[in-house]
Write a structure and sequence with these properties.
The complex is a heterodimer.
Chain A lengths: L5 E12 L2 E13 L4 E5 L6 H9 L7 E9 L2 E2 L5 H7 L4 E4 L13 H12 L4 H14 L5 H4 L9 H13 L5 E5 L7 H18 L2 E6 L2 H7 L2 E6 L2 E7 H6 L4 H8 L39 H5 L26
Helix pairs in contact in A: 3-4, 4-6, 6-7
Chain B lengths: L1 E13 L4 H7 L5 E13 L3 E5 L6 H9 L6 E6 L2 E2 L6 H8 L2 E4 L13 H10 L8 H8 L16 H14 L4 E5 L7 H18 L2 E6 L2 H7 L2 E6 L2 E6 L1 H6 L4 H9 L38 H5 L5 E3 L2 E3 L27 H10 L1
Parallel strand pairs in B: 3-8, 3-9, 6-7, 7-8
Antiparallel strand pairs in B: 1-2, 1-4, 4-5, 9-10, 10-12, 11-12
The chains are: A alpha/beta, B alpha/beta.
Chain lengths: 327, 352
C-alpha cells in the first residue's frame, strides 16, 4: 500500500509473569490506508484490543512492546514516551471506547471537554476552540449543538453520548481513529446510526479507522478490509467480502459458520469445538490446531506461515480453497 | 397444550424522588410503566421469544413469569395456576418447581464461594430432594466432565459457566425455563455451542423456553413464535418465518432493516431515526409514532390495539392498510438530512 496512515510491522506485545512471558499480540503486521476502515475481529482473548492499545500507547505495565514497529503517517511512534506520546494521542490518533458513559468526565460540560482537547492540540484561541467544538458536535449529528454544548454527559442518551465521544475523538482532526467496540453497548437501531456516522466521517475526511469488534455483522456493514485474530496472531487478512464469503483460514470458516444467519434457517449451528486457549497454555505449532477439523501432523509441530501484508491469504499450511463457501 | 398464559400483564414501578424532596421541590410522584397490557400464550414444548431494545420491558416480563416480581395488573398463569394470586400453597409449590431461569451474565449468577456440585443441586436440595450423583450426571449432559463438580466457578470460561447455569436450571426437572439473554455475554463460537446445547436439551427433556433477547438472528434461529416489544407493549407477534419475511409493524420493519447483515457488504441504508422515548412520559397514541415514517393523525391520538393480520397479531393502525406504502422507503428515495455535516452543506451551497 502506498503511504498508509497506520503501518504495523511484526508487532509483538509481551507480558512478563512469574510463569513465563505471555504474548497477547504475536508478530502482527497490517496497514490502514487513507479513508479506509479496517475491521479487526476475534473472540475475547484474541489480542485485538491489545494491538489497539499498543498503537495508541496505552499498554498498562508490565505489558510492553517487545518487538516490531508502528508508523503513523510515516513517523515511527512505538518508541515515543511520556510527553511526546501524549501530544500524538488525540492529535494524530483519536480513540472511541466501548462504553460512552465511562469515557466522558461526568463533572464537566461536554463543551469544556471538547475545548480542552482542542486547546491541548491546536494553537488557537478559546473562542475559536468553542466554535470548533460546536461544529464538531454538529458534524456528528447532535441537534441544537449550540445549546447542547452546555449539557453534562448524563443529560444525553446512550447513542447521543457515543456521538459526543466520536466528536471528541475527531475534534483535533486526527488522521487515525481507533474505535474499540463502539456499538457493543448500544441498541440495534442506534448501532446502525453510529455505524453510518463513522462510515460517513471516514469517507468525507479521509480518516483511517481501526474498528475493533467481535460482531461480524458490524464488520460486514462498515469495514473495507478485515483482519481476523486468534490467540495473538493474525490468521487472515483481506477485503471484507472475500474473507466473509470465502474464508481461507479454518478458524474464520468456523466463525462464519457459527454465526446465526437469516438465510440459514433453523438448522443446527456449526460449532467450533473447545475454546480459545489461554495465553499461558498455548498449544504447540499452530494455536488453532486442537480445534481445527483439517489438522495434520505438520500443524502440531510448526507454528505455520505468518501473514505478509497485502495478503488475502491465510496464516495456514492448508488454506481452504476459494470454492469452499460458508455452509 | 398451553403451558403459560399471560393476560393483560402490567407492571408499574414507582420512580418518585424521596418524600422530602417531593415536598420541597413540589414534585408529583413519578411512575414508570415498564410493561403495559401484554397478553400472549406459550404452547408446551415450544420456544417463545421476546425481542426488543433496552427499556422495552422484556426482562421485566421474564421476572414476572418466574415470580421474581409481582404484576401490578393482569396475571401470569402457568398450567392455569395464577402464581401471584393462588391461595392453595400446595398448587403454587408444585408449579414453582416447574420453572427455572437462566440469566445473562454467567459471571454474576454463580456464587464464587460454592463448589459447582453445590450450585447445581441447590434447586433440588432446597426442596429436600435426593441429590446423590445428580451434579455429575447433569454436568455430563451439558457437555462438561463429572470431575468438574468439585471445582469453583472461577476455574471455568464464560461458555462453560453458562453450561453450569443450564445444568442448575435442569436439576429440578422443570417444564419451563426462562432464558434472559443467555448468550449475549458469549463469543460467537461459544454462543453457537450453547444454542445447540439448548435446542438438544429441549428435545431431550421436552422443555419449554421463554427466550428473551435483543439479537434478531439468534431469535430467528431458535424460536417457534416471536413477540416484538416496544416501550412495554407487544407491537407484533408472529412465527419467525412470517415475522422475518413479512414484518407488518413499522417498528419491526425498522429493527430488521437496522440489524447488521452478514451478506450485504457496505450497504448504504439510511439509519433509523430517533431513539426509544422516555418511558415515564410516553408519547400519546401509538408510542412509536414520533419515529414512525408513515405516522398519520390517528397514530398520534389513538393507541392501536393488537389485531390479527394473516398469521400475525399487529398493533398498528396502518399495517396492511391499502394505500399506505411500505414504511421503509428504498434507500435511494431517502437521504437523511441530519447526517450531512455543516461543512459539506456549506461546500455544496458555494458550488451551486
Amino acid at each position: 500500500m502506498t503511504n498508509p496512515i497506520l503501518s504495523i510491522r511484526d508487532l509483538t506485545v509481551e507480558i512478563p509473569t512469574r510463569h513465563g512471558i505471555l504474548r497477547p499480540v504475536d508478530g502482527v503486521s497490517y496497514d490502514i490506508g487513507r479513508g479506509e476502515i479496517l475491521g479487526v475481529v476475534g473472540e475475547s482473548g484474541a489480542g485485538k484490543s491489545m494491538a489497539g492499545n499498543a498503537v495508541i500507547g496505552l499498554l498498562s505495565p508490565p505489558a510492553r512492546i517487545a518487538q516490531g514497529e508502528i508508523h503513523v503517517n510515516g513517523t515511527r511512534i512505538d518508541q515515543l514516551k511520556g510527553e511526546a506520546m501524549r501530544r500524538l494521542r488525540g492529535k494524530e490518533i483519536g480513540m472511541v471506547f466501548q462504553d460512552p458513559l465511562t469515557s466522558l468526565n461526568p463533572l464537566l460540560r461536554i463543551g469544556d471537554q471538547l475545548t480542552e482537547t482542542i486547546l491541548a492540540h491546536l494553537d488557537i484561541s478559546r473562542a475559536e476552540a468553542e466554535q470548533r467544538a460546536i461544529r464538531a458536535l454538529d458534524e456528528v449529528g447532535i441537534p441544537g449543538a449550540r445549546e447542547r454544548i452546555n449539557s453534562y454527559p448524563h443529560e444525553f442518551s446512550g447513542g447521543m453520548r457515543q456521538r459526543v465521544v466520536i466528536a471528541l475523538a475527531l475534534c483535533a482532526e486526527p488522521s487515525l481513529i481507533i474505535a474499540e467496540e463502539p456499538t457493543t453497548a448500544l441498541d440495534v437501531s442506534v448501532q446502525a446510526q453510529i455505524i453510518a456516522l463513522l462510515k460517513q466521517l471516514c469517507h468525507q475526511r479521509g480518516t483511517a479507522v481501526m474498528l475493533i469488534t467481535h460482531d461480524m455483522g458490524v464488520i460486514a456493514e462498515a469495514a473495507d478490509r478485515v483482519a481476523v485474530m486468534y490467540a495473538g496472531k493474525l490468521v487472515e487478512l483481506g477485503p471484507v467480502r472475500d474473507v466473509l464469503t470465502t474464508p481461507r483460514h479454518p478458524y474464520t470458516h468456523g466463525l462464519m459458520g457459527s454465526t446465526p444467519l437469516a438465510s440459514r434457517g433453523k438448522d443446527r449451528l456449526h460449532q467450533i469445538p473447545g475454546a480459545m486457549p489461554r495465553l499461558d497454555a498455548l498449544p504447540s505449532g499452530c494455536a488453532f490446531h486442537p480445534r481445527c477439523p483439517y489438522v495434520q501432523d505438520k500443524c502440531k509441530a510448526d507454528p505455520g506461515p505468518t501473514l505478509a501484508d497485502g495478503g488475502g491469504e491465510a496464516a495456514c499450511f492448508f488454506p481452504l480453497s476459494q470454492d469452499a463457501k460458508v455452509a | 397444550m398451553r403451558l403459560v398464559s399471560v393476560e393483560h400483564l402490567t407492571r408499574i414501578f414507582d420512580v418518585s424522588k424521596p418524600w422530602l424532596n417531593r415536598v420541597i421541590e413540589r414534585r408529583k410522584k413519578a411512575f414508570l410503566t415498564a410493561v403495559s397490557d401484554v397478553s400472549f400464550e406459550i404452547e408446551e414444548k415450544t420456544v417463545y421469544s421476546l425481542v426488543g431494545e433496552s427499556g422495552s420491558g422484556k426482562s421485566t416480563i421474564g421476572k414476572m413469569l418466574v415470580g421474581l416480581l409481582d404484576p401490578s395488573e393482569g396475571s401470569v398463569k402457568i398450567r392455569d395456576v395464577d402464581l401471584a394470586r393462588e391461595k392453595d400453597a400446595a398448587k403454587v409449590d408444585a408449579v414453582r418447581a416447574d420453572i427455572q431461569m437462566i440469566f445473562q451474565d454467567p459471571f454474576a449468577s454463580l456464587n464464587p464461594r460454592w463448589r459447582v456440585r453445590d450450585i447445581i443441586v441447590e434447586p433440588v436440595a432446597a426442596r429436600g430432594g435426593e441429590t446423590k450423583g445428580m451434579a455429575e450426571r447433569l454436568l455430563e449432559q451439558v457437555g462438561l466432565s463429572a470431575r468438574d463438580a468439585g471445582k469453583f466457578p472461577h476455574e471455568f470460561s464464560g461458555g462453560q459457566r453458562q453450561r453450569i447455569c443450564i445444568a442448575r436450571a435442569l436439576a429440578s426437572e422443570p417444564k419451563l425455563i426462562v432464558c434472559d439473554e443467555p448468550t449475549s455475554a458469549l463469543d460467537v463460537s461459544v454462543q453457537a455451542q450453547v444454542l445447540n446445547l439448548m435446542s438438544d436439551l429441549k428435545d431431550e427433556f421436552g422443555l419449554t423456553y421463554l427466550f428473551i433477547s435483543h439479537d434478531l438472528t439468534v431469535v430467528q434461529h431458535i424460536s417457534d413464535k416471536v413477540g416484538v416489544l416496544y416501550l412495554g407493549r407487544l407491537v407484533e407477534e408472529a412465527s419467525p418465518t412470517e415475522l422475518f419475511e413479512d414484518p407488518k409493524h413499522p417498528y419491526t420493519q425498522m429493527l430488521l432493516a437496522a440489524a447488521p447483515k452478514l451478506d450485504e457488504f457496505g450497504r448504504e441504508v439510511p439509519p433509523p431515526k430517533g431513539e426509544i422515548p422516555d418511558p415515564i412520559n410516553p408519547p400519546d397514541g401509538c408510542a412509536y409514532h414520533p419515529r414512525c415514517p408513515i405516522a398519520m393523525d390517528i397514530c398520534r391520538k389513538m393507541r392501536p390495539e393488537l389485531r390479527k393480520i394473516r398469521g400475525a397479531r399487529v398493533a398498528c393502525h396502518l399495517a396492511d392498510v391499502k394505500g399506505v406504502g411500505p414504511a421503509i422507503t428504498p434507500p435511494e428515495a431517502q437521504k437523511p438530512p441530519e447526517f450531512r455535516s455543516k461543512r459539506t452543506a456549506d461546500a455544496e451551497e458555494s458550488t451551486s
